[in-house]
Specification:
The chain is mainly beta. The chain contains three helices and 17 strands. It has helices at about 25-30, 110-115, 170-175, and strands spanning about 1-10, 10-15, 20, 35-40, 45-50, 55, 70, 75-85, 90-95, 95-100, 110, 120-125, 130-135, 140, 145, 150-155, 160-165.
């Protein structure tokens, strides 16, 4: 089990989740205190309704593969508890703009994270306040690394399956590893019963 903190500023924040939340309901992730007032992802949105102390809308559960625009009414820290993502997830990318996550705990250079981009089918990647454009097999712009806790818009010229690579996956998996308890091979050992034998002095002195 791992916890991850996402620092939010006032207003809209483009975020994602680098772990799978244990409770992935919108209430479980964003709470019901009203500090997070709205959550928007691609094709869906929900708003917190203070009058009934509930969330309303089309987002019921949080998906670690998606990016989210989250509106915070004040500066705050969102703490999420969940399980590490130890595989390289596959995203079903459609033509046009796709709002996706970056699902790892350590940042990865954009060239390593998206190493397979034939014919430049991903033409640009936009984060909150940063962007990169693909040209002549190179990325140019202010976005160098994909970072944990951030969401990204990916613009594609075709439909395909995208796999984001994490060169630190083995380290990430190892960091959550807990070795099984080791059995004590001597825990059931019982010393042999000592038998006292009497002898007379003549047995030792002749």
């Amino acid at each position: 089990m791992t916890t991850f903190d996402i620092n939010l500023h006032y207003g809209q924040n483009l975020i994602s989740f680098p772990i799978e939340p244990t409770d992935n309901s919108i209430e479980g992730v964003f709470g019901t205190d009203g500090i997070i007032s709205s959550v928007i992802t691609e094709g869906a949105a929900s708003t917190f309704i203070p009058a009934i102390n509930q969330w309303g809308g089309s987002i019921n559960n949080i998906d670690y593969k998606k990016g989210y625009w989250v509106f915070a009414t004040e500066e705050t820290t969102l703490t999420v508890t969940g399980n590490l993502i130890t595989v390289n997830p596959t995203y079903s990318i459609h033509l046009g703009a796709n709002l996706i996550s970056f699902p790892f705990l350590s940042e990865v250079n954009i060239n390593q994270a998206i190493s397979d981009n034939p014919n430049g089918r991903i033409s640009e990647i936009l984060g909150e306040g940063v962007a990169a454009v693909h040209f002549n097999n190179q990325w140019y712009g202010s976005l160098d690394n994909l970072k944990p806790g951030k969401g990204y818009w990916i613009h594609s010229s075709e439909q395909f399956e995208l796999q984001i690579s994490n060169p630190n996956a083995a380290v990430q998996e190892q960091s959550d590893y807990e070795p099984p308890p080791q059995a004590n091979p001597y825990s059931d050992y019982q010393p042999p019963e000592m038998v006292s034998k009497s002898c007379d002095e003549g047995q030792f002195y002749h």
